[in-house]
Design goal:
Number of helices: 6
Order of helices and strands: HHHHHH
Number of domains: 1
Helix content: over 70%
Largest sheet: none
Shape: elongated
Number of strands: 0
Oligomer: single chain
Structural class: mainly alpha
Length: about 140
């Protein structure tokens, strides 16, 4: 049942994208920019703090190990390759997915409880274009 719902969601998003490509004036740019701000800009301090702390721990542990071999000079190279190229993007993506995913789920849950989603449907507004698509585009951009 969950797999079928996921495929239906992907199909609806594809149909919405095709519709918006044919009608560019209907893009929900305000919602997309607000979601990019929430997902990208507001997640920066947390991501920077976690990256800094992991960098400190890795540099300390690397220095201890490399000192035994007399290779203290290579700490910067190891951290540059390890954190910036490999570990950094993974950490940021996990943090953004966890933080933003839970916030988006809570927002949609509150909208469901207060019947705002039903009100959008009653007004004839596409729920997927106004609620789902801006979040997906914002996560892809951030």
């Amino acid at each position: 049942a969950h797999g079928r719902d996921f495929v239906a969601l992907l199909g609806q998003l594809l149909l919405d994208l095709l519709h918006l490509l044919r009608h560019p004036r209907e893009w929900p740019l305000l919602e997309i920019s607000a979601n990019v701000f929430k997902v990208g800009v507001k997640a920066m301090p947390v991501s920077a703090l976690v990256g800094f702390l992991i960098g400190v721990v890795l540099s300390y542990l690397s220095a201890l190990q490399l000192r035994t071999f007399g290779a203290d000079v290579f700490i910067v190279n190891i951290l540059g390759m390890g954190i910036i190229r490999e570990l950094g993007p993974v950490l940021v993506s996990v943090l953004v997915a966890g933080r933003s995913g839970s916030a988006m789920t809570a927002q949609l849950g509150v909208m469901r409880v207060t019947e705002e989603i039903d009100a959008l449907a009653a007004m004839g507004v596409s729920r997927s274009v106004r609620l789902v698509l801006p979040k997906v585009v914002a996560l892809a951009l951030a």
